[in-house]
Design a protein that fits this description.
238 residues; alpha/beta; Rossmann fold; 6-stranded mixed beta sheet; 10 strands
């Protein structure tokens, strides 16, 4: 296979939190490359640095040292406004707690990023209706989050994350609040989006079901990569 485009590049990244006189390393000298089209899970015990890793990649937090590049753009060289626009335009987020706006419908939640980008209403509607159908929510677009099940709410979150066609989707424990049936359904949807549309996913997870589906499994312990295993998928390619 020809080499794929690097989407995320971390070089010797550390994140240090101060607790009184103590320095606690959430990430320690960590280097990592995520390429376009990957379906990668980061696992590890609680406190290992999984969520911190996604937060610094997503420009939600700043590393203490090292460099992070998204599509070749170094985050440390960006202004706060530029980082905000990068998060909006090139990074999709799926959170454990869904993080939907309770007063908005499924459609309005899914179109939020496109609206912030200033996409024309007709174009927004076409894109949002397409992604809602892709995640199995056709006909439910007018329902508010409190009228949807947990699995349906997480599918709205996925639709919101992919509607603007970001470079990478960061999913922090996306199945943690779901029962087995909904978790499997959600994984089926994300895997289909990855295979058919080439959506790049990077998960943090404790869930064995996510780890089993991942085609690359990175284990983080004490803020460092302990192992990085690539697997062949059913098409015979990593």
């Amino acid at each position: 296979m020809p080499p794929r485009e690097p989407i995320v590049e971390l070089t010797r990244v550390s994140k240090v939190y101060r607790q009184g006189k103590l320095e606690v390393y959430a990430l320690r000298d960590l280097s990592l490359v995520i390429e376009a089209g990957e379906f990668t899970a980061v696992c590890g015990p609680s406190g290992s640095g999984k969520t911190t890793l996604l937060n610094v990649i997503g420009a939600l937090d700043r590393p203490s040292s090292g460099t992070i590049c998204i599509e070749g753009q170094e985050l440390g060289e960006m202004s706060q406004r530029e980082r905000s626009h990068l998060r909006r335009d090139r990074i999709g987020f799926v959170f454990q707690a869904y993080n939907l706006m309770p007063v908005l419908s499924a459609y309005e939640n899914a179109e939020m990023v496109l609206s912030l980008q200033g996409v024309e209403p007709e174009v927004r509607r076409k894109q949002v209706m397409r992604v809602l159908a892709e995640v199995g929510l056709e006909g439910l677009e007018d329902r508010r989050p409190d009228e949807l099940s947990g699995g349906q709410q997480q599918r709205v979150a996925i639709a919101r994350a992919i509607a603007s066609q970001p470079a990478v989707v960061l999913a922090d424990e996306p199945t943690a609040n779901l029962d087995s049936e909904n978790a499997i359904h959600l994984l089926d949807i994300m895997e289909k989006l990855n295979r058919e549309r080439g959506v790049t996913f990077l998960f943090s997870t404790h869930d064995p079901r996510v780890m089993e589906r991942a085609r690359r499994l990175i284990r983080v312990v004490d803020g460092q990569i302990e192992s990085d295993d690539r697997r062949e998928d059913d098409r015979g390619a990593p």
